[in-house]
Amino acid sequence: MSDSDPLPATPSQDLPSPALHYPYSNLGEGRAHLLPSKPCRSRTSRLSSTDLSPPPLPQKSLSRTRSLPTSKTVHYCGYNSLPRREHQPSPGQTSWEKLRRPLLESQSLEEIPYGRVSHFGPDPGQLTFATPDWELGHFFQNLDSTQEVYKVLRGCYLDSLHRIENRLGARLAGPWPGRGGPGQSFRLLDDKPCVESGDAWYYRVVRITGDTWHLLAAKVHKPWSMTPEPLDAEPPGLALQATLKPHFNVQSLCGQLPAGTLPEAPWQGPVALVAEVPTQTVADWVGANKELHRSCPGQYERQVCLLLLQLCGALKQLHMDSLGHGDLRPENLLLASPRGQTTGALPQLLLTNFARTRPLVPQLPAGEDELQLGLLIYEMLGQGPALAKAWGASPPPLPIRSAYSLALAHLAPHLLQAEPGSRPPMAQVRVALQTMLWGPGPKLQTQGLPLGPWLDIHRALLPLELAERLAGSGEAAGLEDWLCCQYLAEASRHMVGWALELLWGDLSASRD
Questions:
Q1: Which residue stretches of the chain have pLDDT < 70?
Q2: Closest CA to 335 of 354, 308, 295, 373
Q3: Is 283 in contact with 330 (CB distance < 8 Å)?
Q4: Which residues are paired to 215 by β-bridges?
Q5: How large is the C-alpha radius of gyration of the chain?
Q6: Residues 6+ apart with CB under 8 A from 438
Q7: Is residue 228 classed exposed, middle or buried when 0-12, 13-18 and 19+ CB atoms within 10 A define those classes?
Q8: 36 burial level (CB within 10 Å; 0-12, 13-18, 19+)
Q9: Beta-strand (E) ranges in 197-277?
Q10: Alpha carbon 229 to chain centroid distance?
């Protein structure tokens, strides 16, 4: 029964109360005289026997699986964190990845050596608002100790954030339309493309299977060579894209539209079908928001950081699979409306065009994507022409219009380092963008507050903020809420400390 299901209305059945104690009684003795006797059995009642002691209680054993600390990392699966191969850092890689520590780890009770079980209590994730009062002692070794209560609740906050993050991700991504099957038909909604990217045109298409239909996009690749290609020739990068792990910010292929399926279509040959229907490219978005950048620079630059954060999440997964994208341009990055979001909400960024994707060779230093990310920051802040003129020398300073451009001005020079090995890895850049958006700021260390308690405080306050804002308003949590939950659910003080060091130098050196 879920938390939202009503209790069954059964008047004849009372709910147990903690104040009531039911003594044991042998129900078998009371029922024996009610059963018809067999012919071969004496009719003498068992109640007349001199031995009135009840039979022994049946022995029952209850096995539980408890979450206990271990050295094995547990990956929380969602649309942003999926099961993946372990990534071995190259010899020239920084110690950033080595300093990452798991936040929540578990081990089955059966795997704990005998003699250690009594030192651990039940999993704090099993402690809920509905936990009976008489069971609280199983979760807290000493309810009179404020420190002991805080230690358990700290684990509850983290478990709650992971559950909220997974549920938001499932809702925003929505049910994947799948690859279709026999008996399906298609309908072209527009004779003109809804979006033109650097490598393809996109047309809105409806796929109908029985009583269900899905809105998809037909991806019509542009000619990629000067010589005529066969109509059924596969565009470069499409086969690789089909093998990528699912990710919220990586374009999802969901089948092929055979040639001749839509006679009225303005293309020839088969085309790919993608699950997300794009609305514009990042280049289109930057051009359409020039006035917003001038009038409300803080609002615009915050949107830039949120889009860059989504891009870093997709690139991080590619890099963990030893792949580099190699073609990060505004016209190659698509924007779409997340499922269930209103118009004008934060768009979903989609990484596409994998024609130049190459394996990351361990013997050579990576950093091509990091360099292109630095160039992208300049273009999204309207400084692309200035950077092009100064290329070959030191990059020009970014104009400071808000706190976000101030932080990006500290980050961009690291990404544009001439030596590839000197550029920060994508995982560190991602956490740096998260700290730009949700803190901590550069003044944290000057106030004397260490990073560990800062994370604990905000993990407790975020669910409260979401509940207060969404309760009774009819509003649903959005993409920005999900990204914030990802940050606080995944971050550690070591990761945040390195991100602050990257942005602000010695001012924000990590403290315990």
A1: 1-122, 124-125, 224-233, 363-365, 391-393, 445-446, 448, 506-512
A2: 308
A3: yes
A4: 206
A5: 30
A6: 458, 484, 487, 488
A7: exposed
A8: exposed
A9: 200-209, 212-221, 253-257, 271-274
A10: 40
Q: What are phi and psi of 207, to 5 degrees?
A: -105, 125
Q: How many CB atoms lie within 10 A of CB 360?
A: 19
* pLDDT for position 303: 98
408, containing H or E segment: helix 403-415
Quote the tokens at residue 451: 């990073």
Q: Locate the domains of the chain by residue range.
A: 96-173, 184-279, 281-508
Over residues 256-283, the pLDDT tens digits come to: 898 889 989 999 889 999 999 999 999 9
Alpha helices in 271-392 (DSSP H): 282-288, 290-295, 297-320, 368-380, 384-389
Instruction: Note the pLDDT of residue 57.
Output: 56
* The pair of three-digit structure tokens given for residue 125, joined into one six-digit string: 């994730």
- What pLDDT is attached to residue 479? 96
**Residue among 442, 441, 444, 415 nearest 428 (CA):** 415
Spatial distance between the Cα atoms of 102 and 492, rounded to a whole number of angstroms? 8
Q: Which CATH class is domain 184-279?
A: alpha beta
How big is the CA angle at 237 (ends 236 and 238), to the nearest 5 degrees? 95
The strand pairing partners of 186, in sequence order, are 207
- The answer regarding whether domain 281-508 maps to CATH 1.10.510.10 reads yes
For tokens 């003109």, the residue is: 192
C-alpha 267/C-alpha 259 separation (Å) is 9
The Cα angle at residue 252 between residues 324 and 346, in degrees rounded to 5? 90
Asked if 317 contacts 289 with a C-beta cutoff of 8 angstroms, the reply is no
**pLDDT for residue 42:** 44
Peptide bond into 440 cis (omega under 30): yes
Q: Which residues lie below 8 Å from residue 117, measured CB to CB, with a gap of 6+?
A: 109
Q: d(Cα 96, Cα 35) in Å, to the nearest integer?
A: 75
* Rounded CA separation 379/316 (Å): 21
Half-sphere exposure of 287 (CA within 13 A, CB side): 7
pLDDT of residue 182: 76
- In this predicted model, what pLDDT tens digit does every residue of 52-65 receive, in sequence order? 455 565 554 444 44
Contact at 8 Å (CB) between 410 and 381? no
Kind and range of the H or E element at 358? strand 358-359
In the block, tokens 């009770």 appear at 109
For residue 465, what pLDDT is reported? Answer: 92
pLDDT value for 58:
54
